[in-house]
Amino acid sequence: MLEEEYLNGWKRAKADLINYQKDEAKRFEDVVRFSNAVIIKDLLAVLDSFASFEKNLAQPKQDAVGFLAIQSQMQDILKNHGLEKIKVTVGENFNPQFHESVGEAESELPVGVIVEEVTGGYLLNGLVIRPTKVKLSKSK
Q: Whole-structure pTM over 0.70, yes or no?
């Protein structure tokens, strides 16, 4: 009887240790996956500058082609590290999990629907690190 209690206690302790090791391995993976979040978040300002430059570009010139190539290269690098842009469509319903309202604009669309994307939002490994800033429709 006493041996059986010791054996069962040992089995429980071993199972607890295995579960602990699995939990710690998962926590370590999360630390590694999100350790770059701070620097990637800082680099988003550079992506915004590229996007602004591209939006205001009337005619692509030789210099602009170079800037756009750099932008594409940077986007590819960040994508390889788990960054993805939150896709926003005009007419889409506002979702506070992914969007941040920064204003309203008159529109034919129903009230509270997205009418303009002001600044892009991003996910890092599936988590929002910056919500998309949008303008919502309001009644005329």
A: no
